[in-house]
Each structure stands twice: as structure tokens, then as C-alpha cells.
């Protein structure tokens, strides 16, 4: 079996501007997330950042990516719309997409959801307790019934996303709020997962349990059936001949063999 090719997209802003974040993630959050992914065999991980040409997301790079992980917070608006469309089309073609923490407001995630993706939040370093609500789900493999992060930002419901395909985790916060902290969707041939924790001023991506979730999520999001090398693999297809005899009725807009809707 060939390795799953993960790509971690990092905004890489707080690491350059905030000493607390730089001390926790001296090589950048994206580098630490990539380290978690490659802690076990079967996944290779590269990193790219906002500051690179095309934000590191050229056609070639995306064609060689099975699962894209996205961490952003301060500079969602700096991501070019053209690149967002490129990412979304690759998801439709079968590339997995994992949105991390404040990427709930990242342009590609909002575009894939089609809803505001807003939520409640509080930055108080409080305890977060994750409860499994779908323990046989592949993303929950090998995890305990519940686990905790001692310091996290609170995200509370209502989280304005479409009803998920599956809910894998629900979080409880010390202050009393709850949040659907692990959810899946399918967009085209692409598997999408949102995973809530990962505030930049806490060492969340140094926790082994978070690495386990992310590796599970990458394995789950990888769609081996998808032909992600072909950007034209989902066209509208005209069908002139029916399998059973039909009587054509009513006016017809398109002539025989004519290019119609695309
Ligand atoms: Zn945050």
C-alpha cells in the first residue's frame, strides 16, 4: 500500500508575530501538525504556507495531494478566491479536506459548507472534555471513551454548519458550553472533516491524543477510488439514446449532438 500524501496548509502569521505562539511552535504550527501525521507509518506530510506563491497550492501540488489539512485564523481574507476555487474543485474530485480549529471561518471551508459557519467563543484557557458519540467510527479508532485538553479556547453551539454526515466527538467546556467538535461531510467525491481544538496559544498540537485523531482523520478522508488527477472527471454528460423506448414530447432547446450545458 502506498503512503497517503497529506499536505498541511499553515497561515503562519501568529508564529511570526506573537512570542507565546512562537515559543510553543518555533518551527510553525504547520510543521508540528505534519510531525504528528508522520509519527506512524503510512502517511507522508508536506507543508505549505499562505506567504508562498499561490499560497503553496499550485495545480501540481494539489494533484499530488490526497488529503489537505488547513489551519488559519488571522488572515482568512488574504487567501485569494482563485486559490479557494482550485481547492474546492479538488475536493469535489476526491481530495480529502480537514479544517482545523479557527479554519471554521477559512474561505475553502465556508465555500464547501455554504453556510455562515459562525459559533460562540471564549479565550480563557479552560478545560475541554471530548466525548465519543460514534465509537466505531474510523476517526475514533484507538481513542478512549473521553479525553481532555487542560487549556483550550471555548467554542460553543450553535455552530452554523449544515447537518453533518456523522458526528464523531462532542466537547464539553469547563464554563458549561458544548460543541460538536468532530464532524464529517461529503462534498462531491471529497471527504471533509472539521476538528475543533488547536488554539495557537496552547500546546494542543503537542498532545499525542490529538495526533491520533489527525492520523485517523487523514486515513478516513483519503479517497482511494477518486481520480483526483483528472480535473475534468465530473462533467455533465448528454445521453441521446434511452435504454427503453421513449416518446419525445415538448419543445427541445438543444439540437442533436450540440454542445449544451456544461
Ligand atoms: Zn483560536
DSSP strand tally: 9
Average predicted local confidence, pLDDT: 94
CATH fold assignment of the domain at 4-114 and 181-230: Rossmann fold
Ligands, ions, cofactors: zinc ion
Top-tier CATH class of the domain at 4-114 and 181-230: Alpha Beta
Provide the CATH superfamily of the domain at 4-114 and 181-230: Class I glutamine amidotransferase (GATase) domain
Per CATH, the architecture of the domain at 4-114 and 181-230 is: 3-Layer(aba) Sandwich
Please state how the strands of the largest beta sheet are arranged side by side.
2-1-3-4-9-8-7-5-6
Q: Regions with pLDDT < 50 over 5+ consecutive residues?
A: none
Task: Explain the overall architecture.
The chain is an alpha/beta fold. It has a domain at 4-114 and 181-230: Rossmann fold, CATH 3.40.50.880. It is built from seven helices and nine strands; from the N terminus they run βαααβαβαβαβββββα. It has helices at 14-17, 19-24, 29-37, 59-63, 81-93, 107-113, 208-221, and strands spanning 4-10, 43-49, 67-71, 96-100, 120-132, 146-156, 166-173, 178-187, 190-195. β7 and β8 form a beta hairpin. α5 crosses α6 (107-113). The longest helix has 14 residues, at 208-221. It is globular, with a radius of gyration of 20 Å.
Amino acid at each position: 500500500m502506498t503512503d497517503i500524501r497529506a499536505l498541511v496548509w499553515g497561515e503562519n502569521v501568529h508564529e511570526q508575530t506573537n512570542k507565546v505562539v512562537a515559543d510553543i511552535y518555533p518551527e510553525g504550527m504547520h510543521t508540528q501538525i505534519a510531525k504528528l501525521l508522520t509519527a506512524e507509518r503510512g502517511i507522508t506530510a508536506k507543508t505549505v504556507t499562505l506567504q508562498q506563491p499561490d499560497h503553496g497550492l499550485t495545480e501540481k501540488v494539489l494533484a499530488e495531494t490526497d488529503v489537505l489539512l488547513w489551519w488559519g485564523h488571522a488572515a482568512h481574507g488574504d487567501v485569494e478566491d482563485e486559490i479557494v476555487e482550485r481547492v474546492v474543485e479538488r475536493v469535489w474530485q476526491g481530495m480529502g479536506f480537514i479544517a482545523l480549529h479557527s479554519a471554521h471561518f477559512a474561505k475553502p471551508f465556508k465555500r464547501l459548507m455554504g453556510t455562515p459557519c459562525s459559533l460562540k467563543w471564549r479565550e480563557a484557557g479552560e478545560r475541554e472534555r471530548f466525548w465519543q458519540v460514534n465509537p466505531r467510527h474510523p476517526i475514533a479508532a484507538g481513542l478512549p471513551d473521553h479525553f481532555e485538553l487542560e487549556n483550550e479556547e471555548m467554542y460553543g453551539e450553535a455552530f452554523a454548519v449544515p447537518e453533518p454526515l456523522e458526528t464523531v466527538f462532542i466537547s464539553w467546556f469547563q464554563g458549561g458550553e458544548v460543541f460538536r467538535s468532530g464532524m464529517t461531510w461529503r462534498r462531491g467525491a471529497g471527504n471533509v472533516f472539521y476538528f475543533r481544538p488547536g488554539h495557537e496559544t496552547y500546546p494542543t498540537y503537542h498532545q499525542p491524543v490529538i495526533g491520533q485523531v489527525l492520523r485517523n482523520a487523514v486515513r478516513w478522508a483519503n479517497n482511494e477510488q477518486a481520480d483526483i488527477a483528472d480535473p475534468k472527471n465530473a462533467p455533465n454528460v448528454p445521453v441521446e439514446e434511452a435504454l427503453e423506448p421513449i416518446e419525445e414530447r415538448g419543445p427541445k432547446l438543444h439540437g442533436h449532438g450540440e454542445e449544451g450545458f456544461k
